[in-house]
């Protein structure tokens, strides 16, 4: 049986709270989880930062000298040795390997007897600056993995040919946390803005349609707020206007107070290769918070929740939909029920059931080691 999990992660644990944070922190209630991030290149001497980032979750963050030798691997030199030391300290002898990126299959090579799980949360090969070999590497990982989870229906349909080991497991929501946006006071900064406030939370990157952002900001009777870090794009290329506000990254527990200040929640995604298979986690957070949602026609969103959101394509149609958007009790009730049914606890439990059925070494894994940190989430 397994007694721990080794994770290869392309994201930053200290970044935006996403699917890995929710799932791994819940799996850590049963066994230790050790996360190895891809190298972070910085103008500093190479080192490893190690921290207990959440109860039961140890994160190893390689910081690599950007001026040093070219690093071809996504696993920094010395990382596997440090990983082995962390596992020994935690008493882990038989880990499973859990990958979020096909570029870190060296972890599976280092633990050849371990069950291999691939949690495909995005079609990373379609993102900006993806390594040219990533598509081929993913095919190899899909062949090799014991169990594959897909974070949305489009991702699942594109990988279902790899057999019954592939499961469609959309992301969830901490319902109680985000439902608080219905009653809490919004952050002061939003209460000072002209209404309505059109708001977005999430990473600000190549997946956003900035012509839409610029168009809705041109409306004289609305404020536009984008909450989240800027990634993979030059900030100087972003649209600007007196009523367009970039709030930067905020702490995850503060998000409900930001959404509480929105009159309309936005998903202004571009329709391109990077968004063809996305299934945005923020949608259920908006639903729980009780905010009307305007979105571009992202396939997974339209297929699953098209009757609960306002769908508009193009800058003019999107701007018009934002101005028309109002809370609708019937739609809000159905959206709230959809969010409540898709808790992160339920998602993690469904994954564990699939693992018990598909990965022999998982079946005899120990029961919970600690009480859940968040009830009703």
What does this structure look like?
The protein has 377 residues and is of the alpha/beta class. The chain has two domains: 4-172 and 343-362, 3-Layer(aba) Sandwich (Rossmann fold), CATH 3.40.50.2000; 175-339, Rossmann fold (3-Layer(aba) Sandwich). The protein is built from 14 helices and 15 strands. Strands 1, 2, 3, 4, 5, 6, 7, 8 and 9 form a nine-stranded mixed sheet that branches. Strands 12-11-10-13-14-15 form a six-stranded parallel sheet, with helices on both faces. Helix 1 (19-27) crosses helix 14 and helix 8 crosses helix 12. The two termini are 29 Å apart. Mean pLDDT is 92; it is low at 367-377.
What is shown here, in short?
This protein is α/β, with parallel strands linked by helices and 377 residues long.
Structural class: alpha/beta
Broad shape: globular
- In the CATH hierarchy, what is the class of the largest domain? Alpha Beta
The residue fraction in helices comes out at 25-40%
Largest sheet: 9 strands, mixed
- Compressed to H and E, one letter per element, the order equals EHEEEEHEHEHEHEHHEHEEHEHEHEHHH
Question: Can you name the CATH architecture of the largest domain?
Answer: 3-Layer(aba) Sandwich
Return the average pLDDT rounded to an integer: 92
Distance between the termini: 29 Å
- The name of the CATH topology of the largest domain is Rossmann fold
**Number of contiguous helices:** 14
* Rg, alpha carbons: 21 Å
Indicate the topology.
Layout: E1 4-9, H1 19-27, E2 33-37, E3 40-42, E4 47-54, E5 57-65, H2 79-90, E6 95-99, H3 106-110, E7 116-120, H4 134-144, E8 147-150, H5 153-159, E9 166-168, H6 175-179, H7 188-191, E10 197-201, H8 210-217, E11 223-227, E12 244-248, H9 255-259, E13 264-267, H10 282-289, E14 293-295, H11 299-305, E15 310-311, H12 315-324, H13 329-341, H14 344-358
Parallel strand pairs: 1-2, 1-6, 2-5, 3-5, 6-7, 7-8, 8-9, 10-11, 10-13, 11-12, 13-14, 14-15
Antiparallel strand pairs: 4-5
